[in-house]
Write a structure and sequence with these properties.
With about 350 residues, the protein is α+β, with helices and mostly antiparallel strands. Helix content is about 45%, strand content about 15%. The chain is built from 13 helices and 10 strands. A hairpin with a 3-residue loop joins strand 6 and strand 7. Helix 3 packs across helix 12, helix 9 packs across helix 13 and helix 10 runs antiparallel to helix 11. The longest helix is centred in the C-terminal third of the chain and has 29 residues. It starts with a helix and ends in a 5-residue tail after the last helix.
Length: about 350
């Protein structure tokens, strides 16, 4: 007999990815929002040179955001390497990306430096080690704005202290289908944990993808923050698994209907926007994740790749149509997902 999916895959594919971000500012310089264009440019030039000497970044690429096409900036945002703010307010701003894309440093976003490290699944400790490696390498040649009383000084007081934001991207469709997500968000908020959409602050959570991160950086050590986030995201994963089990036992037709409709949409749509595409792919992902089929992991990987390829800038680049209007993208996205559905096995 096959094991129930919640037993076979205790953490399932609920954990998508991990990101650790460190906010840092250079000693003796005003914060970004107080700098003139010339001063911003000076910080950008200085950081480009200093970052190029950091071992983890030495073979990477530095993007001067104001000098690359808008389509390329949008792709960096869709890949979660750059923030929306950095892409839109791009003059005298930069982004250093490591060769393996596991680390990225935003220059002159809200702070002089936003050091980011990424890892697949739930790997907060690994992401923190990578971020600290870049941080330590940069600090060999510069001095940070630091206070013995308040820790690292940042443009926004909520980032002072460690300057650490640890976030985990999670797929929580059963909680959303069970109308429990609002309750989870409120509960986490009371515990100092923030829940946002997949692209961060102010973004939508279509497809039931959520970022869960710490709100407090002052008064806690880095290890305290990592332990706290790890504890709560694992608890949320338990809630999601329990919600899946309850849906499966109490309302199996609801799940079957969601899965059937998602497959039908992907197989036969002629026009589909990003939100609807990601929502349909999310239901297929849930179907695979609850399955005991040996093909499940392959389907999940294919779904994640299709979701990434469905993003507007990635879609335009795929078909060589930079600047394509939304109607054209919706048509191309539909054709791409029709092909994806043809190769989707029964689960």
């Amino acid at each position: 007999m096959n094991e129930p999916p919640e037993k076979r895959r205790p953490n399932s594919a609920i954990f998508i990815s991990t990101r650790v971000r460190l906010a840092r500012n250079l000693a003796g310089r005003k914060f970004v929002n107080s700098l003139s264009f010339e001063e911003l440019s000076d910080v950008l030039d200085f950081c480009e040179g200093a970052l190029s000497g950091v071992r983890k970044l030495c073979d990477g690429r530095f993007f001067r955001m104001g000098e690359i096409p808008e389509a390329e900036r949008e792709m960096l945002v869709e890949d979660r390497l750059a923030s929306r703010e950095l892409a839109e307010n791009c003059r005298a701003r930069g982004l250093f990306v490591s060769a393996d894309r596991s680390c990225a440093v935003m220059v002159n976003e809200e702070d002089h430096l936003r050091i980011q490290a990424f890892a697949g699944g739930l790997n907060l400790a690994g992401a923190l080690r990578a971020a600290n490696s870049v941080d330590d390498g940069f600090e060999k040649t510069v001095k940070y704005a630091f206070s013995p009383a308040f820790g690292y000084l940042t443009a926004c007081p909520t980032n002072a202290g460690t300057g650490l934001r640890a976030s985990v991207m999670m797929h929580l469709p059963a909680l959303a289908l069970s109308d429990l997500m609002d309750k989870v968000v409120r509960g986490l908020g009371q515990l100092g944990i923030c829940v946002r959409g997949a692209s961060g602050e102010g973004s939508d959570s279509y497809g039931s993808f959520f970022q869960i991160s710490n709100q407090q950086t002052l008064g806690l050590s880095e290890s305290d923050i990592i332990k706290k986030i790890s504890k709560f995201v694992k608890k949320v994963a338990e809630f999601e698994i329990n919600a899946r089990a309850k849906l499966s036992s109490e309302t199996p037709l609801v799940l079957a209907d969601k899965f059937a409709r998602a497959r039908a949409v992907l197989a036969s749509c002629k026009l589909i926007d990003t939100a609807e595409a990601v929502s349909a792919l999310s239901h297929v992902r849930l179907m695979a994740d609850m399955s005991s089929s040996p093909k499940a992991d392959g389907v999940i990987k294919a779904v994640d790749e299709a979701a990434a390829a469905s993003m507007p800038s990635h879609l335009s680049a795929r078909f060589g149509l930079a600047g394509a209007d939304s109607g054209t993208r919706d048509e191309l996205r539909a054709a791409m997902l029709n092909e994806f559905a043809k190769n989707l096995p029964e689960l």
